[in-house]
Write a structure and sequence with these properties.
Its main location: membrane. The protein has about 850 residues and is mainly beta. Among the domains are: about 1-35 and about 70-165, PapC, N-terminal domain (Ubiquitin-like (UB roll)), CATH 3.10.20.410; about 295-355, Outer membrane usher protein (Immunoglobulin-like, Sandwich); about 670-740, Outer membrane usher protein FimD, plug domain (Immunoglobulin-like); about 765-850, Immunoglobulin-like. Helices cover about 5% and strands about 55% of the residues. The strands form 9 sheets. It has a 24-stranded antiparallel barrel. A 7-stranded mixed sheet has the order 52-51-48-49-50-47-53, with helices on one face. The longest helix has 16 residues, at about 20-35.
Length: about 850
């Protein structure tokens, strides 16, 4: 009968609530643990149980055939995560059918697209069958030696495919097929604040609102950034800061922006322009392909295990086949430290070699190309005219040793060319480049060069890192873009009797830093020194900073000295910071103290910070501040996060002054099916939609709960990465149940991804029932509603647990292909859903009597 159901009527979604999954799991355990005579065929996981071994009468009550096939589950639709060889590759809704007594997961084209099969393993003619909705084949039909089953205790589809059939992928690489461009939406982000202060007899009032408006349509993202400011003296003023549209180009791992933007500053100094920018987006690369790490090459003589360590810490381990191997997906580890590669052959032999690893910002991985192209007009240069500008930059990882890079920056009156290279070796990482610049003004032409060197080395023996960077300008004729635009602007507007524009362009800049970690929890020491000189100005500006930090148990402290020496004098500042947790509960309360001393005297501040609420939705801070003029003020601040907005407030009181402020922060998303507000705003967000699940907490976000619509805006998602969205159902009313509490999404940068959580609404009901003659129902029999949806199972003691809506419900009890009986249940709509389970005791009657 079950098979007939799936061939003649539509397949309904099965209730995969936590309770129903738990019941399935219990039945599976019980079925596997029943002491029966069993005849097993291990090749296909089939076993035959002899019901005659059961106590007298129980053989007729339990349908033992449901335990015959391994991984047997009720048919229906399942929302599951996908695990490929124990690696999470996505989330999908899949159909399970009962075919010849076996549970078959119907393979779809989207599922096959998630599996990175080698090109030669794809039979395009055979795969055409994937588009036939009437067909249902298991994964093994498409991929030889593959297997798959659904683990109902974790809601995962567990797939096993021989590694030889798969394309090699970088660590934690997420298929672009999973990247979600989100829904069409208008998103309004806001951050406003009203401030008022009083000192003596004067009162100052001001208001500020920063707005962040986004319109997402089919992956196109229109952006507006602006601010409104007001005070009693100047009145109101609105500033439009930036307007642009952007789009992610997945095949190129690139992004295009049309409108107002800033260049990256990777090679030339960053500047603002209005125009078009196309650049490679490193965010689209997996973490194991970003930054710099060397490529590991070697040769294995057998099926070998390769491990890579740095400072005796295991970074990477994999197995390789006999022959040459290549590992290019190590995670970057800061400034580096030589890598020790060990090849463990299957016959017990061990080969070991070292790979140098030192990094500077200019180094990128072998085979990676980073580029950018920008063209438009300059913005925010504080000049009378907007010059046209174009810039092209390219970086290419040539091999483990060398990265080459260069660029061109040009306007009608200014041209700059850069060429350089970076090298990584056993003695450290070094980058060298030269920039040639020409500036043309109505009264003069300036030409000069800039030479730059950057060096970094980590010494493993002493656990120290040295970074040295030097930039020297060989002639006074070298100008960067900003200084060049100011000189051109002045000389263009200068009258004949006016002097030429005086400017002080950088002549040389030298900086060095040392970081030293001490063993046995003796803390961390750092030292930074900077020396800068200018053309046309004598002397130099020097800065020296030294600091030490450590902790004892849960108490941490830091001490730093900062000395600045310029032409107009020298200043030294000493700073001490201390953080002490008060109590060991959660959330913790911290006492933070800071002391600062310089030539003007001593200042100090102490603050007590904590949070309140079941989900830490209320933050507060109280403190005292004593400044260098011997003035003492008391202050307090608080933030409240509601499902719709966040509210902030501050107050400060001194002897002769006091001030206070209040403000709102959050965002509003407008979709075709409604409006949702939230207390946070970020570039990339998710819209959770779980009908009736008001009050469920979104884990990982303080105070973020689903609103009266069952919706919430979840901020701070990582683009192009797997993001877990988890709901805590503890505060749900008893008449609402989440069918799953976790989903994974992979958003495009800037997208608003809608995440739908299925819920069932109905009151929990326990029914004790028997057949009219008092006989027990078959243990494990299925309980269906009138539409054929599986609601639950018959448990021990003739107990049925189901969720039912108010009013009349008819339940069918089936065992195997046989329909046993029906139940009619009536629930009053007046019962409070929080009162707990409702209990009924009534017989299960033959179908013909109802």
């Amino acid at each position: 009968m079950l098979r007939t159901l799936f061939t003649s009527t539509p397949v309904r979604s099965i209730d995969l609530s936590l309770n129903s999954v738990h019941r399935l799991f219990l039945v599976g355990l019980l079925g596997s643990g029943i002491q029966l005579g069993a005849y097993a065929n291990t090749s296909d996981g089939f076993a035959t149980f002899d019901a005659n071994f059961l106590p007298a009468g129980m053989g007729e009550q339990i349908d033992v055939t449901q335990f015959s096939h391994r991984h047997s589950i009720p048919p229906g639709y399942y929302d599951v995560g996908i695990l490929l060889n124990e690696k999470n590759i996505g989330h999908m809704r899949l159909l399970v059918r009962k075919i010849e007594g076996k549970s078959v997961i119907c393979t779809t084209r989207p599922l096959m697209n998630l599996i990175p099969l080698r090109a030669e393993e794809i039979d395009s003619n055979k795969w055409q069958q994937l588009d036939d909705a009437d067909q249902c084949y298991g994964l093994e039909h498409w991929i030889p030696d593959a297997s798959a089953h659904i683990n109902t205790s974790t809601l995962h589809m567990v797939i096993s495919v021989p590694q030889a059939l798969l394309e090699r992928q970088a660590q934690n690489e997420v298929s672009p097929l999973l990247w979600d461009k989100g829904v069409n939406a208008l998103i309004l982000g806001y951050d406003n604040n009203y401030y008022q202060s009083k000192q003596g007899g004067s009162v100052y009032r001001s208001f500020y609102n920063g707005d962040n408006i986004s319109l997402n349509i089919l992956g196109l993202m229109f952006r507006h950034r602006g601010s409104l400011s007001w005070d009693e003296e100047s009145g109101a003023h609105y500033s439009s800061l930036r307007n642009y549209v952007e789009y992610g180009i997945s095949p190129l791992k690139s992004r295009i922006i049309v409108g107002d933007t800033d260049t990256s500053g990777n090679l030339f100094d960053s500047f603002s322009l209005r125009g078009v920018t196309l650049y490679s987006d490193d965010n689209m690369l997996p973490d194991s392909r970003r930054g710099y790490a060397p490529m590991i090459r070697g040769v294995a003589e057998t099926n070998a295990r390769v491990s890579i360590r740095q400072n005796n810490t295991l970074l990477y381990e994999t197995t390789v086949s006999p022959g040459p191997f290549n590992i290019d997906d190590l995670y970057p580890t800061g400034y580096g430290g030589d890598l020790v590669v060990t090849v463990h052959e299957s016959d017990g032999r061990i080969n070991q070699f070292m790979v140098p690893y030192a990094a500077v910002p200019q180094l990128i991985r072998p085979g990676i190309t980073r580029y950018s192209f920008s063209a438009g007009t300059l913005r925010n240069m504080n000049v009378s005219q907007r010059e046209k500008v174009a810039q092209v930059t390219v970086q290419r990882g040539i091999n483990n040793l060398i990265t080459g890079y260069g660029g061109i920056l040009s306007t009608p009156d200014y041209h700059a060319f850069m060429l350089g290279g970076a090298m990584g070796s056993t003695w450290g990482a070094l980058a060298l480049d030269v920039t040639q610049a020409q500036t043309f003004t109505p009264s003069r032409d300036l030409t000069g060069q800039s030479y730059r060197a950057t060096y970094s080395k980590r010494f493993n023996s002493s656990n120290s890192t040295v970074t040295f960077a030097a930039m020297r300008f060989s002639s006074s004729g070298y100008l960067d873009l900003k200084n060049a635009m100011q000189v051109i602007d002045h000389d263009t507007r200068r009258k004949a009797d006016e002097a030429e524009y005086l400017f002080y362009s950088p002549r040389s800049r030298i900086s060095a830093s040392l970081s030293q970690g001490f063993k046995d929890n003796w803390g961390q020491l750092y030292l930074t020194a900077i020396r800068q000189s200018y053309w046309g100005k004598g002397g130099s500006n020097n800065q020296l900073q030294m600091g030490y930090s450590n902790s004892f148990r849960s108490v941490s402290w830091s001490f730093s000295v900062n000395r600045v020496n310029a032409r107009d004098g020298a200043e030294t500042q000493y700073t001490l910071g201390l953080s002490v947790p008060l109590g060991g509960g959660s959330p913790q309360t911290h006492l933070n103290m800071n002391f600062s001393h310089d030539a003007d005297g001593l200042s100090s501040q102490a603050n007590l910070n904590s949070s309140l609420g079941a989900h830490q939705q209320f933050d507060y801070s109280v403190g005292m501040r004593h400044d260098k003029k011997q003035r003492t003020t008391a202050n307090a601040a608080a933030s409240l996060y509601t499902p719709y907005t966040s509210i902030q407030g501050t107050v400060e009181k001194g002897r002769q002054s006091h001030s206070w402020s209040t403000g709102l922060q959050g965002s509003v998303a407008i979709l075709h099916d409604g409006i949702t507000a939230g207390p946070w705003h970020s570039e990339t967000m998710a819209l959770v939609d779980a009908p009736y699940a008001t009050g469920a907490h979104v884990e990982g976000h303080s105070g973020l709960t689903l609103n009266h619509q069952g919706r919430a805006l979840v901020p701070y998602l990582m683009p192009y990465r797997l993001n877990d969205i988890r709901l805590d159902p503890q505060e749900l009313p008893l008449d609402v149940e989440l069918k799953s509490t976790q989903q994974q999404i992979v958003p495009h940068s800037g997208a608003l991804v809608k995440v739908n959580f299925s819920t069932s609404r109905g009151r929990p009901v326990l029914i004790h029932t028997t057949l009219p003659d008092g006989q027990s129902l078959p243990f494990g029999a299925s309980v269906l509603d009138e539409e054929g949806t599986n609601l639950g199972l018959v448990a021990q003691g003739d107990i049925i647990y189901v969720r039912l809506p108010a009013g009349d419900s008819r339940l069918r009890v089936t065992s195997g292909d046989e329909e046993i009986c029906m139940l009619k249940v009536h629930l009053s709509p007046l019962v409070d859903a929080q009162n707990g389970f409702e209990r009924f005791e009534q017989p299960c009657l033959p179908t013909s009597t109802l």
